[in-house]
Structures are given as structure tokens and as C-alpha cells.
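Hello,

Our lab assistant flagged a job as stuck in the queue for most of the afternoon. It eventually completed. Since we weren't sure the result was trustworthy after the delay, we are filing this so someone can double-check. Below is the sequence as submitted and the structure that was eventually returned. Let us know if re-running is recommended.
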Amino acid sequence: MTYNWITILFAVIIIGSILFGAARRFGMESRLVVSQAISIATGIVAIWIGWLLSRHISSYVLHQNTTHLPHWLAQIFIAWQRSPRIGAWIAFLICYFVLSSVIHQLLAGILGQIPVLLPSVLGRSRVLGAVLGAAIGVVRAAIGGAIIFLVLQYFSIPVMAKQANQSWPYQLCSQQIYKPWLKPFVTRALPVFAEDAIQPISQNINLFAVPSGTANEERGVLLVPKQVAKLAQQITANAKTPKQKAYALYEWEIHHITYDWKKYDDYVYHHKWDQQSPLQTLETKKGVCADYALLYADMAHAVGLRVQIDEGIGGTATDYGSHAWNQVWLPNENQWITVDTTWGATQDEWFDVPAAQFNQTHSEQTAIVIDASQ
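-- returned structure --
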């Protein structure tokens, strides 16, 4: 029998809250509910302030030249440029702890008086305590679901995404609460384009394409810059099989190329596409999904692999957008394997993912097959 752990989590939180509410009785439960309501309201305000603050900081930092800044400040700017998502969380946490400390200090005396002010009969009622516990349990379960929603926005976890898709209480909260209220704060953090930002990939590489006879597919041969080819050969020097070569290139790219949020911002917010070649990606050490896929294709082609560049839709259970990734042909196994270096840079689990699992988060629309170099 298959259990949905997200649905079970919702049930456990609600039932536990009912039991604890009955045990604490209405008076003490009322005090706890008011305190938690204040914390939730504080968190909502902190999210809003932190989001506005992080957007202004990111807009400044991403376009700032760090050359003439003091070393310590330049390091902070560089860290923010590389990990704007972490910066957004830091802004939220600072806002939350400051607001929470101030508000609870101001209201501590009032909270302590709540059980005393209630009539004795009401304050001792276990039934009313259980009812109040049920209400707050629903809120707690929704907050737990919100945490899962945020995790799925920032990370690609197919197992959790599948559970979320199959959980009816989570889907209900997602449609009514999370998507309308939380999604606007986290859409830009997902490493896919929420708009059709990817320009035709064939415009960014030296590709001699020939008709393949298959819809939405091209075939061709790449001209790889010497610097890229030399590096690829160095990276795969100790690899014996095509799969070992493909994995060595994957590991190098996910640890040496970072996601370019400035390029993302330039397109999404300013409608400017910063076109770059694989060589430029290698030199700058940053790019978006198309740049990851193009550089990987160049390197794979340079070491004799047959590689494919896929364009389509990628995303989590709740947020999809334009995306690009690769496939590599393994002649000794007579099969293609999937390689997503963009997501691998965030979570090193996107090499040779089983097709059934990979297709939950990736949907191919067009492909360019690059024949193996001779």
C-alpha cells in the first residue's frame, strides 16, 4: 500500500493540535493562539519587507563594479551576486527577528493576562480547547505545506514533487493560498525562465546543421574553440568510457559555472537578451541554462561524444518555465542519458536521471543532435 507522506503530515499536525488543545484547555490555548497569530503576522510582514529590501539590494549589487570597493565589501557583493537567493533569505530572517523581538516585548504583558481575563468556566473547558486546537492545527498544517512549497520553488526534488502532486490537502492549499500569495515572492529564484527568454540556441553556437527529417529536430557538427576543446580534453584525460567522459564534464561544469541572475534580470525586467557564446561562458564562468547546455555540448563534442541540446519546459510541481539541458549517447549501452548541468549546480543529482523521473520535471520541445567528432 502506498502512503502519501505530505497528506499524513497534514493529518498528524491537525490531530496533534486538537489533542494538545484539549490538554491545555481553552485559557492557555487562547494565549498560545494569540501568540502564534502575532508570529504569523510578523512573518508575513517580514516576507514583504525582506522581499522589497532584497530586490533593491540585488538591483544595486548585480550591476555594481566591485573593482574599486574595499576587499571585504567586494567579497560581500560577489557572494550576493553568486547567491541572490541566500541574500533574500538573510534579508527576511533579519526583518523577522527584529520585528518579532520588538512586537513580543511590547505585547508580553497583554499575552500573560489572556487566561486571567477569561471566565473560569471557559478557561477550563477542554472541548473549547480542542476546537481552538483544531483551528490552529489547520493553520499550522498550511504553514507546513507553505514550507514544502518554498522548498519546491528553490530546489528540484522529484520525489517530494510527486508527493505534492498527489496530496489533495496540499493541492487545495497550493491553489487557494500558496500560488496567489507566495509565488510572486519566489518566482525569480527558480533557475528556469518564467517567460520565453531563451533565444534559438542555434544562433549562439558555430553549428553546421543539416535536415534530419524529424519534426522539431536538427542535426549538425560543431566548430569548437581551441580553449574549450583543450579544457575538455584535460578534464576527461583519465576517463575511459563515454559515460565517464560525460560525467567528468558534468562534474566540472556544475562546480565551475554559476547561474547568471543579472542576465536573467536583464531579460525578464528589461527585455534585453545578453547573447553569449560557449567560449564567453567559459571565460566569465557564469551563464543561464542555455549557456550551460551550449558549453556542455561544445566540451562533449570536443572529446568525441555524440551530444544533444534540448529546449523545452522545466520546473517543479508548482513553477515551470523555459529551460535547456543535454543528452549524451552511450554507444556501448545503446541509449541516451540525461544531463542537466544548470540544476546540477544547485543539486548534484542531475546526471543520468531515469527517464520516468526526469520527465516529471522536463518536457522536450525541440532538440539539436550533434554528431560525434571524428
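-- support follow-up --
The delay was a queue issue, not a problem with the job. The result is valid. Residues 260 and 287 are 5 Å apart (CA to CA). The chain has a mean pLDDT of 80.
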